[in-house]
Specification:
The protein is of the alpha+beta class. The chain has a single domain, classed as 60s Ribosomal Protein L30, Chain: A (2-Layer Sandwich). 50% of the residues lie in helices and 14% in strands. Strands 1-4-2-3 form a 4-stranded mixed beta sheet, with helices on both faces. Helix 1 runs antiparallel to helix 5. The longest helix has 14 residues.
Length: 105
């Protein structure tokens, strides 16, 4: 796997710093563990609206990336449309990678 984003997600997964799937992500956000929220490219608009609403008054970024649920499944062995990164270091690095790709930095 030569993709920096997917490789870093794999490392975060092995370090137990990801909350994968809807219920785990909501729990992570409500408990204050989430540092970054990621949506897959094929996540529904309803899911995106729900998480935008949930994160409205929180200082947690939400980023829709270019990878599908199937591509994530290959990288982290879990098919999820939404996940949260629950570590400051991983969240910062993943944000930098995704924002650099989208020329937003």
């Amino acid at each position: 796997m030569n993709d920096e984003f997917l490789g870093l997600l794999g490392i975060a997964r092995r370090a137990s710093k990801l909350s994968l799937g809807h219920d785990a992500a909501v729990t992570s956000i409500k408990k204050g563990k989430a540092k970054l929220c990621l949506l897959s490219s094929d996540a529904s608009e309803r899911l995106e609206k729900e998480f935008n609403y949930l994160l409205e008054n929180k200082k947690i970024k939400i980023i829709r990336h270019d990878y599908s649920m199937d591509e994530l499944n290959f990288a982290i062995s879990s098919r999820a449309g939404v996940l949260t990164v629950d570590d400051d270091g991983f969240a910062q690095r993943i944000s930098e990678i995704l924002l650099r790709r989208n020329d937003l930095l």
